[in-house]
Amino acid sequence: xxxxxxxxxxxxxxxxxxxxxxxxxxxxxxxxxxxxxxxxxxxxxxxxxxxxxxxxxxxxxxxxxxxxxxxxxxxxxxxxxxxxxxxxxxxxxxxxxxxxxxxxxxxxxxxxxxxxxxxxx
Length: 121
Known about the structure:
Number of helices: 0
Order of helices and strands: EEEEEEEEEEE
Number of strands: 11
Mean pLDDT: 94
Distance between the termini: 40 Å
Strand content: over 45%
Structural class: mainly beta
Largest sheet: 7 strands, mixed
C-alpha cells in the first residue's frame, strides 16, 4: 500500500501565505512525478503544480509567480509554498505521486486525502 499524507492547509487572509507538505510512504519503488491538484467548490479538480524527477516544473497559469513547488526525491516529499494567496485559491488541495512502468507505459497514481485551504477576502 502507498500512502500520501498531507499537512499545512488552513485559513488565511488574502495576501497571506501557506505551506503545504506531502510525504509518500509504503511499497512504492520509485516516483516519477509529484504535485498538487486543487478543487474549488462546484468546480472540477485542476492541476496547481507538478514537478517531475527530470524536466520542467509545471504551474497552472493562475498560480505562476505566487506558488513554488519543490521536492525531495530521496525522502519522497513535495512542498507547495503558496504566497500572495487570493480568495479564488480556496479549495481542497490534493497531493499526488505518479509513476510510469515501461515498456507498456502503464501509469499509476496515488493520492492524498486532501487538505482544505481557505482564503478570506
